[in-house]
Amino acid sequence: MNIAICDDEQQDIDILYNYCKSCKLPYNISTFLSASALLEAFKSQFYDLIFLDIEMDKPNGFEIGSILAGYSPRPIIVFTTNALQYAVRGYGIAFRFLCKPITITMFQSVVREALDEILPQKAAVTCGSTQKMISINDVIYFESLNRHIIFHFANTSTLEIKDSMENMISVFSYPSFVQIHRSYCINLNYVDSFTPLAVTMTDGCKIPLSRKKQTIFQERFNNLIRGTIK
């Protein structure tokens, strides 16, 4: 999970940074002393959870928070502030507010709530000797090749791990994922078009559609169109 801490006071950044480390979870933590620096970094790196100070020089936390809230997928934003009267203005943008000085108890409570939102969108896969968390929303499809699984992501990157299709199907037991061939499982949110023989994904890849999988694919895709799954 990627976490960003943005505050124009280094002391406040250090406090939250140390709190994050104390949780001993697989976090990648980035820190920023200005909202504009955070926004620039966000263009190339998605942050699942953002601790964002409100009272900064232009642009302030509200202004950047409004921009970040418009992204899809949307990051979880926790505003940090010296005055909770800002909470009314930030309603609809922030997941939670933390009033300074922030205690470890306050921090841990918010992180637990955030994890309840974030982790259902993540899947853990074994990459070598480590566990890697990947965002299910970023996976276009994955394929089985020579006892390996290759993930294809929306940013055009790939990840290859040693695992079986059977195991990955159980890991990705989400409504938006469907196996359409013995070697392919796709994310229905990235379907561009299809024929009785193949499904074309938004990255241009044409994936074979097994005759035995046509019915389940059509049913699940129709459910997606109706908005009954996501």
From TrEMBL:
This is Stage 0 sporulation protein A homolog. The modification 4-aspartylphosphate is found at D53. SUPFAM superfamilies: CheY-like (SSF52172). May play the central regulatory role in sporulation. It may be an element of the effector pathway responsible for the activation of sporulation genes in response to nutritional stress. Spo0A may act in concert with spo0H (a sigma factor) to control the expression of some genes that are critical to the sporulation process. Keywords: DNA-binding, Phosphoprotein. Coiled coil: none annotated. Residues 123-223 form the HTH LytTR-type domain. The keyword GTP-binding does not apply. Gene3D superfamilies: 3.40.50.2300, LytTr DNA-binding domain. The keyword Glycosyltransferase does not apply. Residues 2-115 form the Response regulatory domain. GO terms for molecular function: DNA binding; phosphorelay response regulator activity. It comes from the Bacteria. PANTHER family: STAGE 0 SPORULATION PROTEIN A HOMOLOG, TRANSCRIPTIONAL REGULATOR-RELATED. PROSITE patterns: HTH_LYTTR, RESPONSE_REGULATORY.
